[in-house]
Prior knowledge:
Layout: H1 3-79, H2 82-94, H3 97-111, E1 115-119, E2 125-128, H4 143-151, E3 154-160, E4 163-174, E5 177-187, H5 190-200, E6 203-210, E7 213-219, H6 223-234, H7 239-246, E8 250-257, E9 260-270, E10 276-285, H8 286-337, H9 352-381, E11 398-408, H10 410-413, H11 421-441, E12 445-450, E13 453-458, H12 463-475, E14 490-505, E15 508-514, H13 516-527, E16 533-536, H14 537-549, E17 557-558, E18 565-569, H15 571-584, H16 593-600, E19 607-608, E20 612-620, E21 624-631, E22 636-643, H17 651-664, E23 675-681, E24 684-690, E25 695-696, H18 697-704, H19 709-728, E26 741-743, E27 749-751, E28 760-764, E29 767-771, H20 782-785, H21 792-808, H22 818-827, H23 842-851, H24 863-874
Parallel strand pairs: 14-16
Antiparallel strand pairs: 1-2, 1-5, 3-4, 4-5, 6-7, 6-10, 8-9, 9-10, 11-13, 11-14, 12-13, 14-15, 16-18, 17-18, 19-20, 20-21, 21-22, 22-24, 23-24, 25-26, 26-27, 28-29
Helix pairs in contact: 1-5, 1-8, 2-3, 6-7, 8-9, 9-19, 11-12, 12-15, 19-21, 19-24, 21-23, 23-24
Amino acid sequence: MTATTTNRRFGLSLETRIFLVTSLLIALSVGAAVAVTSVLLRRIASQAAAGSLKSSASVQATYQAERYERLKLISRLFISNPSLVAYYEEATETMDTVSLLDALSEGQKDLGFDFAILLGPRGRVAARTDNPNATGQDLSGRPLVAKALTDFEASGVWQEGDRLYYAVAVPIAKDFTVLGYLVTGFAINDLSALEVKRVSGADVAFVANGEDGPAVMATTLSPPIVRSLTAALDSSEKAMGQAMRTGKSMAREEVELEDEPWLALQEPLRDAQGEPVGATVALASLAQELAAYEQIQSVLLAAGVAAVLLAPLLAFVLTRRTLRPVRRLMAAAEAARQGDYDQKIETGRTDEVGRLAQAFSELLADLREKRDMEAYVTELSKNLPEPAQAKAVAGQPQTREVLLLGAELRSLARVMVNGDPQGVLDRVGTELERIRIAVAGQRGQIETVSGHRVLARFEGKGRGERALAAASEILGTSDGELVSEAEAPVVALAAGKAVTGPVVYGEQTDRAVVGLPVQQLESLLREATPGELLLAREVHDELRESFEAAGFRLAPRRGVISPQPLFVVSPKMAARVANARGIAEGQTATLTVAGAATLTGIAPGALMGQRFEILTVLGAGGMGVVYKARDRELDDLVALKMLKRDLWGDKGQLERLKSELKLARKITHPNVLRTFDFGEIEGVPYISMEYVRGVTLRYLLDQTKRLPYSAGLRLGKQLCAGLEAAHSVGVLHRDIKPENLILEPTGNAKLMDFGIARPVKRMTPGQTQEGFIVGTPQYIAPEVLQGKDADVRADVYSCGIVLYEIFSGALPFTGATTMDVILKHLREPPPPPSQHWPEIPPRLEAAILRCLEKDPEARYRSIVDLHHELEALSA
């Protein structure tokens, strides 16, 4: 049975179940809807009526305020014309009433008010549109005018006989002197009532307190209802009548008008001084509301019957529509199973199918990133050096900008070839292994070996300082002292473009390097005497600042054989420059091979404690030398870190490391390099760890400066995942940097060196004490530099530095000395990564800069939050 057939059968079965369930749900929903509608019908009608009343009250208040504001605006506009004010002043002096009425009429026509009165400064009528013969009438006692005379401006309901107006009074002034007042008004009429009903849906009646009792001035009600309402308002026994007489509000109350139930809400209409002159009554007919819902019930019942009859068709259509995205996801899953991860999944839905699509889209993103990372690492791994015992030659032919180191072991040229041949070759092997470890410890690579001459290359950031450090180790010990004058080799450094890669001759394949730097090395090595390090001019120019920072200024020397200028450096000088510059650049101090051999007395082929068979040296660091070894008890390969002699006598340091490594052993995660054990063999402390053959992130960055976006994002998420596992058991890493992240050939990243610190002396005011500042200057958090207690946010900061370097190809803080770097961490904001990579997504840049906040409170609270942000960027 094929997968397609299985999917189809599964799809048909699912459609059938959805069909049946949907039909049943439609039938149950219709029955429930009809039953609930019948029970709650009157309650719903009452709530709808109450809603209309509430809306009506709000609309009336808004409408009234709008009328007043509009009148004020109209009045101010009318009197804002200086010529009109002058005309008014002249007309009042000459009692030219006709001219004033003409002006008011024009204003009424242009501005749309229903009536207007021009008053003198004491409230006497100069002219009014509704009564041209009222000139001289004293209106100072009217509430609106009285309030205006005291407050300069007033608004309120104006009652004029059996009519009501929204009215305002504004002063007419000239040179800060009140010349009179303008009263304007809008009539409260049926149109006003219709406006309120149109917005709120409730009927409205505007009622005035007349001499013969309440009188409805404007309304949306029919005449029979108006008569019944007037009677209710005039009755002292009913709530409406009592509210009308007392000028109080009446809350929502059910009343009978023309034998029909109504809900009524009553609010007083007040003049400018707050005295009631009438009322507004909002009414909603319960019978009408009920009738509307009864119609809805009938329609719902009919629609329900039709829905039950159409349920099978609806269920079928719904099933097909619902399963359409599922079928698309099934097709995408089948394509992904075939290795096609570059599919676009629609993720706009928010239901379960949408969440499934989102999860599947994230899975495809992870698979794409994994594929891209694997391809990236695979391509880079072509240039990796093979193990010493391998015969294949790694790498592809290419032109490189390199710094070459040439070492000539002249003592080997003088061996007695007629003596013990095996002894001669053993000596050659020992010296070559010493040089290989020195070069590998400084991230260099041996290119060719010819007799007693070795050629190695260095690339990437700090290549000159690393080559100096390797040269000082080849010439002698870590402190720059020669092993012996007679046994001392000679070393030379040259830089420039060279072609490197495998070369085939006959059936042989070997690595070769060709170019001008090789020729320069030949000349320099012929000029050198035992124990000397010679630099070509290009190398000296590259390292000039480093020498000057260490207090050296080299003078060129003319060669005897070659006319090219050369520079002579002693082993001590090389060691001092390399160490000073290496610490400033944030590199871990590297043990010399000779020092390591002297330190531990361990070399490939040794058997430690009848358990660990030493196979080869993997590298060296600030804590000691790392060996590849076979654990005979576990019958497995392990990485064995033998600690350097400085740590042997510090029992407190060893106990602290042992305690921290006990915690680190609890971490079991695919993105964490397992720590197995901590102990002593033959008096030498060691740490045994999982062995992984791969490349460090530092190697990747040296090769390509910055990683491709998808590969970098995947690596960043793996870094966060490993730290999450550590933080969950209470372990802080405290030394996150590219050197401590190793990538397997599959692209899986593992975080190394948990809980390992390097001791330093910390000075505090008034006290000198031994302490531990863990981390590398380029990656250390400001609070740690200040001696404060570190928490998970210190690891978040270091992660931000690593992410910055992954995506921009540069470090945010660099300097000539360690103190320069520390001060920048403490004081300077990091430059945006977009300065180095303009195409960086803004959200990614914001995430990196948030990690690098000086204040821990401003960073992500945990590595989990940062991980979620990177996951969102993937999606």
